[in-house]
Amino acid sequence: DAKTTQPPSMDCAEGRAANLPCNHSTISGNEYVYWYRQIHSQGPQYIIHGLKNNETNEMASLIITEDRKSSTLILPHATLRDTAVYYCIAGNTPLVFGKGTRLSVIA
Amino acid sequence: DGGITQSPKYLFRKEGQNVTLSCEQNLNHDAMYWYRQDPGQGLRLIYYSQIVNDFQKGDIAEGYSVSREKKESFPLTVTSAQKNPTAFYLCASSIGGNKNIQYFGAGTRLSVL
To answer: In this complex, which of A44, A45, A93 lies closest to B31 when CB atoms are compared?
Structure first.
């Protein structure tokens, strides 16, 4: 699995878009980019994943750069319930989780 | 409801005791996984199984054992050889192969008395 780099923490105002960056410069051609989040003392929740193309679902959008060395998870209208640790993973199962980004949504 | 059930939610272990954490899934997934999470840290892989009656060690398998006798069940035993067992334990499952989404249970928090 490729090593990922994420900022340890970020703040976002409620109702604004939250843009969470991830660097995965050593990703190989067949490795996917996955995003999960973990609310305190719960199991991680799958958000979205992609290989090359940008992806969107009901929770978020995933933007992957053309060279696939970085990606951004976008929560379009952050709410207080989006406060969590967000994990970016570049690889295949079994997934390797780093320390993630602690996102705080502020009222 | 379909999903992954971990039990118990909280578990206490006495010194020198083996304890078993339960993980059951009704998603018809072939693959199952066990992770350990320490405070403020990411998840570390203990064991995983891609098919019944087969499993592989992860990064921190020492002091743990597993079995996979049924597709829906993947119990984890924390043995007395695990000297620092206090942690949050998470079970996951996926359809199988190496490009599939892993879905997680709610976790078991293990503490040593």
So the answer is: A93
Q: Please give the backbone phi and psi of residue B30, each rounded to the nearest 5 degrees, phi first.
A: -80, -35
Write out pLDDT tens, residues A26-50. Answer: 999 889 999 999 998 899 999 999 9
**What is the number of CB-based contacts under 8 A between chain A and chain B?**
51
The proportion of chain A whose per-residue pLDDT surpasses 70, expressed as a percent, equals 100
- Per the DSSP assignment, residues forming a β-bridge with B21 are B76
DSSP chain B: --SEEEE-SEEEE-TT--EEEEEEE-S--SEEEEEEE-TT--EEEEEEEEETTEEEE-TT-TTEEE--SBTTB--EEE-TT-S---EEEEEEEESSSSS---EE---EEEEE-
Q: For A35, what's the count of Cα atoms within 13 Å in the CB-facing half-sphere?
A: 30
